[in-house]
Records
---
Amino acid sequence: PYLVGYEYHKNLYIAKVTDTLPPAIEETMKAFIPVLKRLDYRGALSTEEKIVNKNKHYFLDFCARLPSPLSALYQEYILNWPDVVYKIGKKQEVRLDIKHKYVGALPLKSLHGENHWLKLDVDKKDRDHIKFRTVTQNNGKYYAVKGPIDPIVIIYGGNTVDEVLNGLKKYAEKANAYGLDKDSIY
């Protein structure tokens, strides 16, 4: 299956799990097949496109890496993630076993955290939905390393887009750090 989704302003990402690609994206993927085969490429692949309508689209970006922030949810929601990584590396067939019909990722940033270490206050029971990036631990407390990277990514999966959006909002409200911008959840 594929994760086909929408990214809103380099922030919220919602994806549908599907076995078929929209025609515009399928056209793009088919164009890359010869070059990917020639390179024996077996890594992650993410593209960005502006879809105008069923027949018109603009290819924007080819990302030969795990998509961010979406990949923060792979370890939780791709149930066979270790096998996927191993088997792709060994040129073996593998099918993704994805837990939900829809998944979402919402990065949260702190302007304060760009120039300061940032203490992250997150309940341990919520850690399967609140993921850390560029983080260290000291005396049982988590701290985001100062810099421009969003220190927290909220992830959620469900059977409907509304369920995912509500789950992202719920866990974003539970994440705490000085200056954490939660305006995007609304």
---
Amino acid sequence: MSDSHQTTLNLKEMHDLSVLRMLAGNQRFVERMAAEDPGFFGRLEKGQTPHTLWIGCSDSRVSTDVITDTEPGSLFVHRNIANMVVHTDFNVLSAIDYAVNHLNVQHIVVCGHYNCGGVAASLEAAELGLIDNWLRNIKDVYRLHAAELNAIVDKKERTARLVELNVMEQVYNVCKTYTVQKAWREHGRPFVHGWVYDLKTGLLKDLAVNISGRRDLEEIYRFDVDQTIGSEH
């Protein structure tokens, strides 16, 4: 039988219980919310006013709404492998632009997590395929902090530290964007933060990287400087 004449199977025929459980879970969610808050879906339908853009990892163990105990509508979320902010990735750049210029978020959080598969893979020499191009960005973070990381003997501890350093670098990458710097100049927002989620304890760790203006950036990355970079002050 040709592809154009194949019969479409329903989920029960495919015996895909995981998908059926999700659909059943959705039904329970709707029933629970209708009982607890009858106006919940009506409010969501009218639009979103999130206070924070969350840039996190795609890892299935890190469910943003769950670990922060926030309701739908509170967080505008972008996720990718190892919570990267790459200057050539128009996906994350568009998310930042929309969150800052149209949703008027007050905060941007870059959140990584310990035991991150993407970070661990970046430390290996194995060829993994297309993802190697993405992991190269994490390898660049390692190169920037090689002295510190190479001094850590335990591989697990070294990987955990790279998770933290990667979050810090992605925070700075957020701040290097024209979108964020323009918003700082015109509105005094957003505040950009770096956190790490600990899968073992369930707790978020604040890395104390909290940036609110271009004064925290190296001069070479600042837009609209008053004079030529490197000139005498």
